[in-house]
Structure prediction request, 175 residues.
Amino acid sequence: MIKGSPVLPDLLTPGLDVVFCGTAAGSVSAALGQYYAHPQNKFWRTLHAVGLTPRQFAPAEFAGLPALGIGLTDIAKHVSGMDNELPPQSLGRDALAALRARIAVNAPRILAFTSLTGGKRFCGPKTSFGEQEQRIGATRIWVLPSPSPAAHWNWNESAWRALAQQVRSGRGDEP
Prediction:
């Protein structure tokens, strides 16, 4: 088991609308201590474009997200890098069990994996984009296309828009 401080702190509080979950902090994010910090990462632009934030946040402002009902975490909390660079088992059973426990304790309405890799690790190899059948207690699970520049070939904002609509409708922000 990997010990020590997490690369990035969890941004979890009970009752959030949505928690976005990456596989692991990328090298730029780890170096800066900020989620989705690579300048070409689409995460912050997309949150604003789909209406989940009132303006485009900078990665350094990530700590302000819980006030908007948004949290952040990763599967692998103690390593960083691209998925293919991560040590064996960093996205394995223990890491997935720890994520499940963190989500069960905080009970967000939605857990949204920000990559198909993360979604498949958690939900199984046949997982596709969108809402999943699995739940953690009452927490719904979504899988989204990765906003990472390394996954640009797979980018599609439509699943992000569908998630945002579900988040807003759960808040009573939409008819």
Q: What stands out?
A: The chain is about 30% helix and 20% strand. Strands lie at 18-25, 70-80, 110-113, 130-136, 139-143.
